[in-house]
Target: Cytochrome bc1 complex Rieske iron-sulfur subunit
Amino acid sequence: MSDHDTPGGEVARTDGEFGATAVRLDEGHVIGDGGLPDRFENPGLEPHQQRMSDQSEAGAKRAEKQVAALFSLSIIGTIVFVVAYFALDAHAYVFIPGIGDMDYSNAVLGTALAFSLLGIGLGAVHWAKTLMPDEEIVEMRHPMRSSDAARQGVVDTMLDGAEGSQINRRPLIKYTLGGALGLFAIPLGLQLVGGLGPLPKNGLSLTYWNGPIGPDGKPHFKPLRLMRDPENTAIKVSDVTVGSVFHVQPEGLLDMDSGVLEAKAKASVLLMRLPPDTITSRKEIAWGHDGIVAYSKICTHVGCPVGLYEQNTHHLLCPCHQSTFDVTDDCRVIFGPAKRPLPQLKIAVDDEGYLIATQPFREAVGPSFWERGSA
Model:
């Protein structure tokens, strides 16, 4: 095998059965057996294809109206999105073939947003295909820092491009595009701000324990029995023995036709019975019954379900991040990242001996936030 210098300073080596040969690697050459061309021809650029808008002003006007119609479709989609966002019930459901039950507002919002995006996208593509210049331009490589003349040339090219797009000559496109892009920012803002859900002070403070929502849009509290989950049966005092734990939901929640999972996520409660002499908090004794206490099951760190109860120590443990709560002392945090106790549910016994909630949670359930009210 032998090496050969090329004019560019590169060396090519090819090994063959009877020796080695060198081939130059300067630009445009290929290594082959002599059957291929020594240099490829520049194929050039595709010729410009005449369009209807190039041949007549009437064709250009027709394309302008088509582009404007697509941008107008985007505007209509955005307006429908904004109206539906405020007008539709977020808890109404509709059956969609192939999908099943779906939140009605989500279906309308998704469809409206799709038309909003589709109108802008199709309008931009049709504009580029029918009115904007379609000749390809090759720009040779140049040093990273161009000369001042070249930089000014870029500015001139941009201005020429704007002129070539005819946006100044086509005010209908300019105004509908501006309207579509301007209005499209509204759904994005609503999704980023309002789409995160209600403000924590309202969304996490109101649970099914607050009572049904009346015609005035406000909850109307009434004492609710504590029901086993998932059996949906009422609990008597005699059912709760020392060391036992019940997963509890408010009366009526498990009978709901829709929205059960969302309601359970905020209303879930753990019911336990401790020896009364182990309880150190006067409030806990006053809010419980003969050592029976009820606490929110939702961890105050990031909202994981607290489900591990240590009978000997009377500690509740969150499995996600190991926050530990002392049930004998108002469920205060004794370990882990949680910053506040689990909210307690005040309970009593009705005339038939069943456990009931005499008031809703006084604190917001779940993760802490900056406007959490005090008990």
